[in-house]
Design goal:
The chain contains 1 helix and 13 strands, in the order H-E-E-E-E-E-E-E-E-E-E-E-E-E. It is α+β, with helices and mostly antiparallel strands and about 240 residues long. The strands form 2 sheets. Strands 1, 2, 3, 4, 7, 8, 9, 10, 11, 12 and 13 form an 11-stranded antiparallel β-sheet that branches. Strands 5-6 form a two-stranded antiparallel ribbon. Strand 8 and strand 9 form a beta hairpin. The chain is elongated, with a radius of gyration of 28 Å.
C-alpha cells in the first residue's frame, strides 16, 4: 500500500511538472507576442524642405531651403491600432529672410568676441539650423490591408537648437556662426500621414509626408532689430523602416 502511494505520488509529481512546464512555456510565448505587439521601433532618413514666415510685413520669407532629418522612432501600443509615439531626431533645416529695414546682425566668433554686421534693406539673410528634437505624439493606424497599413501621427515636438550658421550673400559672408541670433529652445506641432508596407513579420517599409510648424519665435530680436515672430515651417518626406 505504501509502495503504491509512493509510486502514485511520483507519477503525479512528474505529471504536475509537465503541466507547469507547459503552462510556463505558454505564458512566456504569449508574453513575448504581447511585448512585440506593444512596443515597436524604427529608423528614418527624411529629405526636408523648410522656410520661414513672419508676423510683420517688414520681414518676409525669401524662399525655402533643402535639409535632412535622421532619427529613431518608438511606439508604445495600448491598442492594436493606437500607440503613443516618441523618438529622437537630428534635423537640419533653414530658410531665407529679407527685411525692409537695415538689420544689424550679432555674431560671436570662436574667441567669444561679438561682431556686428550691417545688412542693407532687401538683402537676403540665409539661416542654417540644426535641431535636436524629441517628438511626442499619438499614432493611429488601420488594420493591415494586404501588405499595406495606413497611419497618421499627431503631436508636439520640443526642440533644442544645437547649431546655427548664417550666409549673407551680399556681404560674401558664408557659414558665420549665428547662435547669438537664434533662440535655443522651441516647440512645434507635427502632422504625419503615410503607409507601411509589410516586408514580413513585424518589419515594414514606411513612406509618408510630415508637416512641422513652430509655435515660438526662432530668432532673437537683438538691439534695434524689428520685434517680430519668425516661425519655422518644415515639410519632410518620411522614408524609414519599422521593426
Amino acid at each position: 500500500m505504501i509502495e503504491y502511494i509512493l509510486n502514485m505520488s511520483k507519477h503525479l509529481n512528474n505529471r504536475t511538472l509537465t503541466i507547469l512546464l507547459f503552462l510556463f512555456l505558454s505564458i512566456s510565448t504569449h508574453t513575448m507576442i504581447q511585448a512585440q505587439q506593444k512596443i515597436g521601433f524604427g529608423i528614418h532618413a527624411d529629405p526636408v524642405i523648410s522656410w520661414f514666415s513672419s508676423d510683420i510685413k517688414e520681414v518676409i520669407n525669401d524662399g525655402a531651403r533643402p535639409g535632412f532629418n535622421f532619427g529613431l522612432t518608438f511606439n508604445k501600443y495600448f491598442n492594436p491600432n493606437y500607440s503613443f509615439s516618441t523618438g529622437i531626431s537630428l534635423l537640419n533645416a533653414g530658410g531665407r529672410l529679407v527685411s525692409q529695414d537695415t538689420t544689424v546682425m550679432e555674431f560671436t566668433s570662436l574667441k567669444k568676441i561679438l561682431k556686428l554686421t550691417t545688412v542693407l534693406p532687401n538683402e537676403a539673410i540665409v539661416y542654417k539650423i540644426q535641431y535636436l528634437s524629441i517628438p511626442l505624439g499619438l499614432k493611429l493606424q488601420t488594420n493591415q490591408i494586404g501588405y499595406l497599413t495606413f497611419f497618421t501621427d499627431l503631436g508636439l515636438d520640443p526642440k533644442v537648437v544645437i547649431g546655427g550658421k548664417t550666409d549673407i550673400p551680399s556681404l560674401y559672408i558664408k557659414d558665420e556662426k549665428a547662435m547669438n541670433e537664434l533662440r535655443m529652445f522651441n516647440l512645434s506641432y507635427h502632422i504625419t500621414a503615410g503607409i507601411e508596407y509589410s516586408l514580413g513579420g513585424t518589419t515594414a517599409m514606411v513612406l509618408g509626408l510630415n508637416f512641422d510648424n513652430n509655435f515660438l519665435d526662432i530668432t532673437k530680436d537683438n538691439g534695434d532689430q524689428p520685434v517680430d515672430k519668425v516661425s519655422h515651417k518644415i515639410l519632410s518626406f518620411r522614408i524609414g523602416v519599422n521593426f
